[in-house]
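Recall the central idea of this unit: under ordinary conditions, the amino acid sequence of a chain determines the structure it adopts. In this exercise we apply that idea directly, starting from the sequence alone.
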Amino acid sequence: MNIVCVSHLRWDFVFQRPQQLLSRAARHGTVLYIEEPTIVHGDSHLHVSGHADGLRVIELRISSHCPPAERHASARRLIAEAIEKYVQGEFVLWYYTPMALPFTYELNATVVVYDCMDELSAFAGAPSEMRAYESELFRIADVVFTGGQSLYDAKRLRHERVLLFPSSVDVPHFARARRGAEAPPDQALIPRPRIGFFGVIDERMDYDLLRGVARERPDWHLVLVGPTAKVDPATLPQAPNLHYLGAKAYAELPNYIAGWDVAMLPFARNESTRFISPTKTPEYLAAGRPVVATTIQDVVKPYGEQRLVRIADSVSDFTAAVEASLLEEPQERQRRADAFLANLSWDRTWRGMEEAISQAAAEKNAATKAALDGIGPREGRSHPFSERGETTCSTISS
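Accordingly, the structure predicted from this sequence is:
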């Protein structure tokens, strides 16, 4: 199966759902991962980087001399060039962002997939067109995947084929933390106990909670591993026991978690977190760490309900939950966590997605054949931008 994926996420930013799934897809087919266009000096061109197996990351570099009204056309030409050069035969068109519709609608894909992993319209700085473009994407998609139960509940009535594929985990990778590891130099000198977080540090974090816990327990050390996004690093809470270690490679994460006493999910409760399903929840559990989280819906159910994660929101409750985690005997929790994780793997998730795509393709082909044979009505789906002028996509900016 060949896949042309268009995404709002940079491949090398944080290794998460798209990277887990498409790395597996690339073992048996060609995958083009097309990043959001960027504006550059000089001529428009493709920047291509090769990764393992059959995966190539494509950056669309649009010339600053290209008038805004022509930038979508330029992006379309570059994508066509990439497909002609690297993809042999049919392909699946895979969306992570509806904002790519204006420069991908003409692509002749066998199946159109929308892997809805977040409610992007609720994020800080979301383009005003996002909701309208998502409606168009639901109209043309053949199958829609959702990355968590809350997203599934919100989207399931908007398309006839919406399937739930929750965040999964590479258990062997994170289980390395249980065996101990050489302490990373930037964490080795931080005193214990250490309460750790890895992930993007952005508007979804509860900074008042972090500040309060650090103040309440100056003997605890809160370690945050990950890049910042859409927040000014200078505005982050500061304290002698708050440590921001920056972005780390996926391969390094078990070494950091091995040095934590408790893992945390200190998310705010706001529109940007209403539908999130953090992949780090099962990753923390696979690493053998007790977890304390705020009341994020897809963490509360199932992890909180099954007593795999402690749930707390206020500074006092969060502090008490961390204290209980530090004092617990871990064997029973780890036994229950391992039993839960036995049913989760990205390999299993990918196989389920492959089956759903193959079924969608077969039904689409059968419908097309029936229409050509005059047996039934022909269901043509008009392209979303074919009957109106080109619009300016705010994700292609100067």
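The chain has two domains: 3-168+348-372, 171-341.
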